[in-house]
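Tutorial sheet, problem 5. The two components below are modelled jointly, 1100 residues in total.
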Amino acid sequence: MVVPLGGVAADILLAGIGGIRAPAEVFQQIFLVFLGLGTLVGTVVITYTLYNAYKYRYREEVDPAPDKDHPQMGELPKGGGKGKKLFLSFGLSAVIVLSLVGWTYGALVMVEEGPSAQTEGEFDSMDVDVTGYQFGWRFEYPNGHVEDSSAGGKLYVPADTVINVSVTSDDVFHNFGIPELRVKSDAIPGQTNDVWFVTEETGTYQAACYELCGQGHSYMDAEVVVMEESEFQDWYESTNGTEADATNTTEASA
Amino acid sequence: MSHEHDHGHDFPPMSSVKRWFITTNHKDVGILYLVTSIFVLLMGGVFALLMRVELFSPGLDFLSTAGAYNQAVSAHGLLMVFWFISPFATGFANYIVPLQIGADDLAFPRLNAMSYWAYLFSIVLFMISFFQGGTFAGGWTMYAPLNVPTYMPNVGGTTVVLALIMFVAAVTMGSVNFLTTFYRMRAPGLRMRDLPMFSMSWFLTVWMMLLAFAALLAALMILGAQHLLPVNYFNVDGGSLLWTHLFWFFGHPEVYIVFFPALGVMGEVFQTFTGRRLVGRKWFVLAMVLVALQSFIVWMHHMFLTGINLEIKTLFMVTTIGISLPFDLMVFSLIYTMIKGRIRFTTPFLFCLGALILFILGGITGVFLGAVVLDYEFRGTYWVVAHFHYVMFAGGTALVGGIYYWFPKMTGRMYDEFLGKLHFAIYFVGFNLLYFPMFSAWETPRRVFQYDTGMAFWHKVATVGAFMLGMSFLIMAYNLFKSMVDGEEAGDNPWEYASTAEWAVPSPPPLENFPGVPDYRGGSLSFRDESELRGETAADGGTATDGGTPAAETSAATGATASGGALATAEQALATQAVESEPDHADHASYWPVVVCFAGFVAFLGLSGIRTGDTLYYGLTATGGVLSAVGFVGMAQESFYVPEPEFAEKWPFEGVENMKLGMWFFLASDIVLFGGFIGSYLFLRVANGWEHWHHAFIPEAHVVMPGLINTYLLLGSSFAVVLALVAAEKNSSRGIVASLVATFLLGVGFLVNKGLEWQHLFHIHSEAFPNGWNLGTNIASSTFYLTTGLHGAHVVVGLIMLLYMVPRALFGAYTGEDQDSLEYFGLYWHFVDIVWLFLFPLFYIL
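Model answer (structure tokens):
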């Protein structure tokens, strides 16, 4: 089942494993709250603006403020007063914006600290190195097996496992992103950036490049295949014939 | 339609082509900027339409071959951000600001013309790049290392970098000019806080321009060096990240540089067409000042995914949200201004009200991006594209309102109101059809033309909107052209409740702007007779204005300082003519600006292809270089009379004449330029390991002694310049000549010593460096040669100036009253020496 790029399969991603919230779920929740509040604020402010624009349209016979004088030619610029009302609105919007962003800070810390900070229990994890190049992606597994997207390779990962991705580049600045799984990281030559994700649902997802990197930028896709753990184990063993376990079981760190 | 007087010299009328090539008058230059930038809007717009055609369906094959799409998207961004929107605002600023503040012209009219011609020729350079193997195709953000020749081998890529450098020179010249004008040429009674809203916003804009563009220049010069010389900067470890820092340190202030003038237009237009003064004006201005300052501390929000640590991300999240708050205040101020107003929905007001709404939408979506966890997903997607088009193009929308607002003033005719409203209607619908669907299709990666079919519908709607938006401009073109020919006469002021000074003079204003000296000291604008004012100040015993006493000012006594010219890289050649009998009127024309800038264009064109080894390019470089030298000398020799205003507010620079103040501003930007180079060095050294750098990258042969000798040589040369000034006080021509020659020789000694040092380093054969320590041996060598090389280039410029000054000193110049140029040179030379005092420990000792 291929989930098309951009078709946010929100339902199947909204859960981590064993008490771990996937970054995808965090994003979805925060995004929806922002969207709701943003739409509300936008609607209120714009409606208010248009309402006032209409209400105070010029009418020959009506002067809404007959005792107030209008700007005169050549006057030294001065304000129209009513600064206090300004501060009320400004204060209100400041409170909204600051609380919104402050609320997201907790989620930011959670994503940054990684899954071990979230849970007391055990969970499986696996490391994968992702290297971007002009114009494809190379996935390297702990046992040394390499999947190269230019050669039809894909990123195979087990479900219910925290995947720790280390992203870098062979040449220019790329960006590795799997939108449905809400994973994204800059791929910078000479340095490695770490991100993590986890998902319960199997399926095939698209990865793409999100930083202009040359003529092949538009075609720099790769497929991400999430498999059942046992299925994945079988595939992994077949890559080089050993019984080496790709995943580690992480003890909780307080 | 024109009202010039004949000043005794032949200033051609507006209908003459020659007039437009030689004019230095601010109104003419403003029109040149406006017309040229609209042409760029067309070009950039066509690229956007080409992109939208390709994006109509995923996988169309319209523009997808040979990197055409990447070129289109990069050209669209570069043209719109750099070559369209700020120059468009600059056009208004040139025309309107002097009128609003009561000045006859800008402080340095020839410099003003030069900044226009540098702008124009930089566009020509950019256009040529398409024919040199394709233009720069790495996005307007020019990320590294895609931006270096290894990954962008086409000559056109280099040309674009050089075109941008030329553009930055134009901007720097413009900002130095405007800042000097703002501080020293306001009408009496007009304090800084009394600046009208458009002028106020432009004032803050040019401050940001001065400092931010210098940082970009550092990035571009390093990148240019990497294109032309075998240096290694952006392709080494840490180089990619360095570029993002340099670029975004500039890039964020840049977006406010783009938006502020639009905000200023909105302030003016809201006040005029609501008939109410701006609510909380004091706080509005304070909010703008805060944004201008804060704009320099938010840049890493463009870098949240680059692997920077959590503490830094948090800091920049806070500063980013912090910068959105003053905008909240300004938005509310504009909305409240409408209350109890008598609003007339003229075309300018419609565009500005529309701009406000678009900006609110864009601003809200910006808050999303400020929440780091959300930004992690929005990075590189159309959410960002939609957001910035809403805010930036909202700025553009307000500027379109500005066209309609000031069209009557500039042409003396009214545009057709119905067509204006029609333009707005189609524009606004098209705009939202184009950009709103991008939020629905936000998951589309940026700069791709293969996208998921699920989003095709939204992209189709966007393409339709794009064409609607584009076509709406045809209505404007028709309207304005037709109105220029047979529009209704506008008179001085067609707008009820307009209050700023530009509406108190005829439409279009006469060459000298005002029928007297504008004076606000009575509480409002009046035009005073000069002799009356002089009489007044004499009677008062000398203090009539805050700005010092006109009678006592030497500038009034001598009356004139001929303005000097400037190098394409924003150096200023200094010259004074011996004071002759003063003509009555200021000069308005010079052909040297266009000559110098054309020469610069030729030189840069030559430089662009130097890598290919083609003799044509070498020839062009040499020709351009020689012609610029001729041009600068010609400009310095030219007798160009620019009177400093006798009666003006000059706070806080009452005692600093225009040329000196201009030099200070220029040096401020030069400080930021060196800051960029030094900062790059520090960043790369930390990234590669501070001690490791010293042990692994620098040869044993790189010792302190040559640097120490150079330090003494430069300090000695600075002392020599001080002696020259002392001699000038004493009217000793021989003393001046001797001191200047000593300065020159010490400077030459510095360069010779450096040359010897470099030769030695190029030819070492140690175990670690068997082929010498060259420009491109490693990152340490590149940073060393490039940074000290930039300093060396500054020394060379100083020496060239000395070559001009010594012969003149031999003939008695710079004595007595005429010392000013010597002083300016001294400022520059001391600056160069002080920079060395930073470079020496950084590159030789630490």
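Marking note: Chain A touches chain B through 91 residues (CB under 8 Å). Full credit if you identified this.
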